[in-house]
Amino acid sequence: MKIDLTDTTAGDINKALVQGRRDIGTPAVGMVLTLVIVTDEENAYDALKAANDASREHPSRTLVVIKRVSRSPRDRTTSRLDAEVRVGAEAGTGETVVLRLYGEVVDHADSVVLPLLLPDAPVVVWWPVNAPLDPAKDPLGALAQRRVTDTYAAEQPVRELSARAAAYTPGDTDLSWTRITPWRSMLAAALDQVTCEVKAVEVEGEEFNPSCELLAMWLAERLDVPVKRLLSSGPGLTAVRMNTSCGPIVLDRADGSLATLSIEGQPARAVALKRRETAELIAEELRRLDPDDTYASALRYGVERLNTAPEPQSTAAEPEPLEEAAEEAAAKTAKAPAKKASAKTAKKAPARKAAAK
Fold first, then answer.
1. With 225 labelled, which of 38, 103, 122, 236 sits at a CA distance of 20 to 30 A?
2. Is beta strand 237-244 parallel, antiparallel or unpaired with respect to 247-252?
3. d(Cα 147, Cα 169) in Å, to the nearest integer?
4. Per-residue model confidence (pLDDT) at position 74
5. Is 210 exposed, middle or buried (0-12, 13-18, 19+ CB in 10 A)?
6. What's the rounded Cα separation, in Å, for the pair 304 and 202?
7. Per the UniProt record, which residue ranges are transmembrane (predicted)?
8. Across residues 156-171, what is the average pLDDT?
9. How far apart are CA 46 and CA 66, in angstroms?
10. Of the candidates 177, 120, 148, which has an alpha carbon nearest to the alpha carbon of residue 36?
């Protein structure tokens, strides 16, 4: 059931919700939280579809806030609120209100949303795109116990991670972190099967993929070992290789759905590790509304290392330390005319070593 309201108020929207529940024969309210989605017109449909799918697990009142920016100076001074109320099959297992804000009311979206929140129920705010740099200080974010962003939608994801770390407040989280939950579970389970010391780790995935960066940060923070970031054509994360005292542990996913787990001394196993839809990610975030301390520690630790580390290096093979020493010795020897033959021999040594590798 849909009810369209033009140039309306929050009071009229609440009345429409009550009337809608009565008309479909469900006057009781069985929703567990309020989900506020702050998006634009272009991404509203996909975000609302994901929220409706997630409501099967978490019945909620979904408020979609769409801020319409008027091009005409006259329209910018005219405030208007249009609403679309959906109940019943149109709103999944909860209620949905699509709010379109015009004019000066765009800057006061919190005053529109506040009267529509469910009483005595937690509030979650989700920005599918264009999230504020400090979600907790945003007027809408200040109403929520949980604030969900998606760094993957940013133009510069790695720089966005730095902003998230600087402005982190308990209750903040990111869907880029949620995407690697199966990877973290699988790697932790693999390490539980062996009694080895991890010496180094390689994380392979797409360039500028925040999930790959967060997984590398988490491994570096938890294992306290060097973590090397390698690039691949994707999709998303493709492999994690851990060098241990008992042999390599490799989790390789080349096709984005099925992965292979290889542990030294054990047969390789195929494990389901598909890329999840947004609805599954949102449903996971709504399962627990307490602060995610693991995300906070990994984010801060990793961003600190990014800020203090040298410039990122390319994935091309780099000379080994021994090869560099040989090249330096060869250069010094080449300056002396009496030792030309030895210089030539020193220059050929790295090539033979590389070929042996």
1. 236
2. antiparallel
3. 9
4. 53
5. buried
6. 19
7. none
8. 90
9. 13
10. 148
Closest residue by Cα to residue 25 from 69, 75, 74, 88 = 88
Task: Compute the mean pLDDT over every residue in the chain, rounded to the nearest whole number.
Answer: 82
Cα separation of 75 and 78, whole Å? Answer: 5
- Residue 26 CA to residue 310 CA, distance in Å, equals 61
Contact 247, 262 (CB under 8 A): no
**SS3 state of residue 160:** helix
- The pair phi, psi for residue 6, each rounded to 5°, is -110, 135
For the stretch 69-113, pLDDT in tens is: 765 555 556 789 999 999 876 666 788 999 999 988 998 999 999
Farthest CA pair distance, the chain: 101
Please state whether the peptide bond connecting residue 182 to the residue before it is cis, i.e. omega within 30 degrees of 0.
Answer: no
Residue 177 CB neighbours (<10 A): 29
Gap between the Cα atoms of 49 and 55, Å rounded: 10
Cβ atoms of 35 and 60 closer than 8 Å: yes
**214/177 Cα distance (integer angstroms):** 7
Cβ atoms of 238 and 253 within 8 Å: the answer is: yes
- Domain locations in the chain as residue ranges: 2-178, 182-275
- For the beta sheet containing 247-252, the strands, ordered from the edge strand earlier in sequence to the opposite edge, are 227-231, 198-205, 237-244, 247-252, 258-263, 269-272
Confidence at residue 352, expressed as pLDDT on a 0 to 100 scale: 36
First to last CA, the chain: 68
How far is residue 275's CA from residue 285's CA, in Å, rounded to a whole number?
Answer: 16
Three-state SS for 165?
Answer: helix
Say which residue the tokens 């297992």 belong to: 93
- Cα separation of 36 and 305, whole Å? 34
Residue with tokens 């579809």: 49
Question: And the tokens for 54?
Answer: 């997630």
Collapsing DSSP states into helix, strand and coil, what is residue 9?
Answer: coil
Q: Which tokens is 104 given?
A: 């000066």
State the pTM of this model: 0.80
Q: Is the CB of residue 249 less than 8 Å from the CB of residue 241?
A: yes
Q: Are 85 and 18 in contact (CB under 8 A)?
A: no
Q: What angle do CA 312, 166, 37 make, to 5 degrees?
A: 105
